[in-house]
Design goal:
About 0% of the residues lie in helices and about 50% in strands. It is mostly beta strands. The strands form two sheets. Strands 2, 4, 5, 6, 9, 10 and 11 form a seven-stranded mixed sheet that branches. Strands 1-3-8-7 form a four-stranded antiparallel sheet, with no helix packed on it. A hairpin with a 4-residue loop joins strand 7 and strand 8. The protein is globular. It starts with a strand and ends with a strand.
Length: about 120
């Protein structure tokens, strides 16, 4: 059983940056692709970014492309989401997820963190 714990959220102003971290335990981290998703109030959970098992491949939602960067350090069992040039529409609860498949489909991810709130003021 894999446990994921996110951190790094907060309240920032538009244009600021945040880095989210997701620490994994209870499994072999490098066996899992990692995904980042977010859910804003009243909206469905949406895909943000994904990174492959070794970190060699990443993919982003169009809404964050060029602003967000996913990375991972398998030696530290940690995935990261660097978020730059934040916009008010980025306000949401952000979740990291671990799955065997490198996919943007949230149903393919078996393990989820508890979420961390990101609020961007204008």
């Amino acid at each position: 059983q894999v446990q994921l714990v996110e951190s790094g959220g907060g309240l920032v102003q538009a244009g600021d940056s945040l880095r989210l971290s997701c620490v994994a335990s209870g499994g072999t981290f490098s066996n899992f692709a990692m995904g980042w998703f977010r859910q804003a109030p009243g909206k469905e959970r949406e895909f943000v970014a994904r990174i492959s098992w070794g970190g060699g491949a990443v993919f982003y939602a169009d809404s964050v492309k060029g602003r967000f960067a996913a990375s991972r350090d398998n030696a530290k069992n940690t995935a990261y989401l660097q978020m730059n040039s934040l916009k008010p529409e980025d306000t949401a609860i952000y979740y990291c997820a671990a799955g065997r498949r490198y996919t943007s489909n949230y149903s393919d991810y078996s393990y989820w963190g508890q979420g961390t709130q990101v609020t961007v003021s204008s």
